[in-house]
Amino acid sequence: MGNAGTQAREGSGGRRPVGYFYHLRRDDRHSGAILVTDPIGVPLEFKYTEPVTATRLHKILYGRTLERYIHETLIRDRLARELQTDPQYFITPYEDKEFLSRIAGREAMAVQRLRPAPGENGRPFTRVRDCEGIVELEEGATVRLAFSTADEALQMAMVAWLQEIGRTMDVLEPLERIANALTALCGEGKKGLGNG
Fold first, then answer.
1. Is 17 in contact with 44 (CB distance < 8 Å)?
2. Do the beta carbons of residue 107 and residue 133 sit within 8 Å?
3. Nearest 5°: phi and psi at 67?
4. Annotated domain spans of the chain
5. Residue 122's closest CA among 140, 145, 146?
């Protein structure tokens, strides 16, 4: 497990930090990271895992549960236990919505940038399904999101929070930073991993 630049502090203006979780899979190698930023995107804490490799025996013994076990137990939950900061919510890539659940005791949302159709009048929030919706952020940016909770009041609080931080930062850009960091770390070879 690696750790880089840990500073447990609250975000600007007394607002709680923003948490990001990213899982990277390359063939049978899995790694993950949590990045916590202040509400303008400045990193406060970064934790990552060394790559986990699924062997043939793992695939036989775990069967269909292997992917979930690696993603949730070996990577996400382990990283969450190591956090020193306390984010308001966590943001993950939309592709990981099937793995959505609370992280470090905080609700999470899977987010994806959308390109609205020309002439489409956006509303601040449109519910698509019980746990999914479309949110319009500042300057016409639109995102699709899935919630880790079915509680509608909590979902609306999460939408309001996302719109608020969307005024001061690009809410998806830190996910790109994590992906790039994990790719760079994986490229350093096994010996250098985890020594952030």
1. yes
2. no
3. -60, -45
4. 2-192
5. 140
Residue range 52-97, pLDDT digits in tens: 988 899 899 999 999 999 999 999 999 999 999 999 999 999 999 9
**DSSP letter, residue 69:** I
Q: How many CB atoms lie within 10 A of CB 165?
A: 24
pTM across the whole model: 0.84
Token pair of 152 as six digits: 């509608």
Helix (H, G, I), strand (E, B) or coil at 68: helix
CATH topology of domain 2-192: archaeoglobus fulgidus dsm 4304 fold (3.30.2170)
Determine the 3-state secondary structure of 16 from DSSP. coil
Largest CA distance in the chain: 54
Closest alpha carbon to 79 in 3, 185, 8: 3
In 20-51, which positions are buried (b, 16+ CB within 10 angstroms) versus exposed (e)?
A: bbbbbeeeeebbbbbbbbbbebebbbbbbbbb
Tokens 């959505």 belong to residue: 100
Query: Judging by DSSP bridges, how do beta strands 90-93 and 108-114 pair with one another?
Result: parallel
Q: Where are the beta strands (DSSP E) in 119-193?
A: 125-129, 132-136, 142-147
Per residue in 9-35, pLDDT tens?
A: 444 445 789 999 999 998 778 999 999
Which amino acid is residue 133, in one-letter code?
Answer: G
Helix ranges restricted to H, 69-139 = 78-82
Amino acid making up residue 189: G
